Amino acid sequence: xxxxxxxxxxxxxxxxxxxxxxxxxxxxxxxxxxxxxxxxxxxxxxxxxxxxxxxxxxxxxxxxxxx
Length: 67
Description:
Blueprint: E1 8-14, H1 15-22, E2 31-38, E3 43-51, H2 55-64
Antiparallel strand pairs: 1-3, 2-3
């Protein structure tokens, strides 16, 4: 029996973009967030990932919110 690996769609966002994403009723079943800190620029980045089956909703949201 083979195990299927989940496929994720990921978008990097600034703190402001991530806040906008979180404050929106997006209707995604689930999403994951990875916090990435860039010490040189003192800039924080968030990698937001969704399952492949939510790709269309996620892409529509990115466009609608100008992320």
